[in-house]
Specification:
Length: about 180
């Protein structure tokens, strides 16, 4: 009879349904995006049932996913079990997360990037189940853009040199009113 390893439980795994693998949303991902998505799936935390086993229906961090680009780069930069892993730069990771939003895997609860320690917070979504190739994105870009320059806190109004040079008023809303050109 074989003994169980001493470090039982140190190996982290995740639960992936065949519905996910066969979905149009997953199949539309590139190979690098699939790698990053599988890493994001390992960040899920599941609850336990009455017997103390992992219950895959109880997702504890459904609306509190933080996956900083630095952690993703660190994961893919180091070899795992002596396997060569591809290295992804910040631009590849950014494009992957944009694709995850487009096909309905994730939604943004808080858009980070306002300073040190301000991370984006994502929520797992089930919109990917209904997404078909050729469908429009599952999110609107409205409210997700950040202007460069100074802003009034909590107003959504940005003061930029570009706004003054393009014939706009001195303030432009994030939503870009018709009077404000890009």
């Amino acid at each position: 009879m074989a003994k169980s390893p001493k470090n039982k439980g140190s190996e982290r795994g995740t639960y992936i349904t065949t519905e996910l693998i066969h979905s149009d949303a997953f199949r539309s991902l590139s190979s690098s995006q699939k790698d990053i998505w599988l890493f994001v799936l390992t960040r899920r935390v599941f609850g336990k049932d009455a017997k103390g086993k992992r219950d895959y229906t109880k997702l504890l961090n459904k609306s509190d996913l933080k996956a900083p680009a630095a952690a993703i780069q660190e994961f893919f930069d180091g070899p795992i079990r002596n396997m060569e892993m591809p290295s992804y730069n910040a631009d590849t990771i950014r494009k992957a997360f944009k694709k995850f939003l487009e096909v309905g895997f994730l939604s943004v609860l808080h858009l980070g990037g306002n300073g040190p320690g301000d991370q984006s917070v994502y929520q797992f979504e089930d919109k990917w189940k209904h997404w078909k190739a050729g469908d429009p994105a599952c999110f609107s870009k409205q409210g997700m853009a950040r202007g460069k320059g100074f802003c009034q806190p909590n107003s959504g109004v940005f003061f930029t040199k570009a706004a003054k040079n393009k014939g706009c008023r001195s303030t432009c809303q994030i939503t870009r009113s018709p009077t404000c050109q890009k």
